[in-house]
Amino acid sequence: MEYRSLGRTGTKVSMLCLGCLMFGRRTEEPQAMDMVNRAIDAGINFFDTANMYSRGVSEEMVGMALKRNGKRSRIVLATKVHFPMDDEDPNARGNSRRHVIEQCEASLRRLQTDYIDLYQIHRPCPDIPIDETLRALDDLIRAGKVRYIGCSTFAAWQVVESLWVSKELRLNRFICEQPPYHLLDRSIERELVPMAQTYGLAMIPWAPLAGGFLTGKYRRGEPPPANSRYQDDSYYAQLSSDAVFNVLDVVTAIAAEKGCTPSQLALAWCAQQPGITSPIIGPRSMEQLEDNLGAVSVSVTDADRVRLDQVAPPGRAISYRTPISYQYHQSGFGPHTFR
Amino acid sequence: MEYDSLGRTGTQVSTLCLGSVTFGDRTSESDSMDIIDRGIDAGINFLDTANVYNRGRSEEVIGKAVRRNGKRSHIVLATKVHSRMDDTDPNAAGNHRRHIIEQCEASLRRLQTDYIDLYQIHRPTSDLPIDETLGALDDLIHAGKVRYIGTSTFGAWQIMESLWTSKTLGLNRFVCEQPPYHLLDRRIELELVPMAQTYGLALIPWSPLAGGFLTGKYHRDGSRPASARFQPKNEDRDLFSDAAFDVLDVVSEIAKEKPCTPSQLALAWCAQQPGITSPIIGPRTMTQLEDNLGAMHVRVTDEDRARLDEVSPPSRCIASYYEADFGPHTFQW
User: Fold this and answer.
1) Which of A194, A334, A339 sits opposite B194 (nearest CB)?
2) What is this structure's pTM?
């Protein structure tokens, strides 16, 4: 396994990060335990979860698995805060000091650990200024409960604003951003990637397989297969445009030439793009994990990239109707109520 | 004519800004001067040029026209620096102090004026830190040669970095950004527009008609007037794609219903989008100017916007004929 510096921190993380969204949702506890063990055996030392994944259940499973595995001290453990944890309580959500500190304590309990390695703000909030959030995160770092702080699905300008605030108020700064990034949505290449390269932020893309589209399991003109994520999705017809399948055709063709799977090619492409630290895989099953692990030995050439650029141009999103892109556009990039 | 504040400055500018990229070149000096007079008569008080437009000729024509017209004090005059002005001199381009100050003096001479209202950095460069550029611009403001400073075609993150720098160093800040924006390239809606709204920057889009494509003068079958800017030899693959013509079809349809011309509809759409101060028109002829001025009276409804969003989704790009240097930067500021 290749290890890379998490941005400017010097902490080394594996070039694949194991995302735990499915744990407690579509992956049962025993499978989740086995997958964590298998990933650690394969050299993955970077795990990502969030308080809101199955409202704490994902964190609990990760905590149990790491305790059982016994290698907590070797793991770089990332979680997140922002999304509602209690529908009845208007304060049980958001990026306010009150909620961030409360949820950090709760995450530590669920994860059965004394510290979180990377604590991330899951989404930007245009209605509170970033200094409120940064001060709370800085206090958590000083209290020893958190090592590093990061953000997820922030606009480049919002990250720069946060760096400005950190510098001016002498607070710890974000060292990592977790953006959506895959062959169907290359929007981040325009602003976020060059900004992150300039300021030394790590980038750990979520949904590198576009929610499973790039595995090749969905086919042009066919209904989604049983047991797939979009099988009951009434939007599927809109999600699966010709332009999307044109990209998939090239991915599949190149993968066939290399003798790897489409998902391995799509993952390898993502991991080898400029500025990228570790794509986050989100396997539901051991079989998917094994497939994803194979991506570390796939090498993407300049010629491959040129062919992919022709169907998925740099800096652009392919189809408005891919679900991931739609979320990126909707993610609260402002304008802000306060500066 | 409507007027609105140039961002947070309080200076009022007309809803349309008159651009001058063809002046002194494809538009003769006397036609250019007549176009400027007509623009001012119609209430336009915002003129935009650049040192590089025909290597100083556009500025010279504007200087002459404004002097003849006599209303300099009513005009908000904008120009730019960055692009190469001399092929044999490596320092005759860029965003460094030496070139900026030299070109500001040269622009003042060509424009026959003592001050520039809005002095803009024409493009970002990744090879020098922004404090170098801001330091020079701040000195020009203190010297009374420039009133306000702005950017053109910068990334939202680069502008945030510049605001940070200005605040920390106590320098004047950029008050305006000039991005490419039209119905075939809406990418600025993702980051630049909300940033500008948050920090009170004016946005004055260039190329609101996508280089003339949205006038309807180009057709799917390849026919076009002989005087049109894009001919088969220089036509852009994206701009002449089916997706682009699909947008044009909806623009033409809505225009016919109003009724107005497609260019008036496209201009009115741009001017009425959130965060937009004044689109920059670039008429080559008096006829084109008269057409563009008609956009002032076109109202774009929510329903029109929804129909346009269907073919040209928010924040997306159908045809980009320009990419800027958004980094990464060699230096952190």
Assistant:
1) A334
2) 0.92
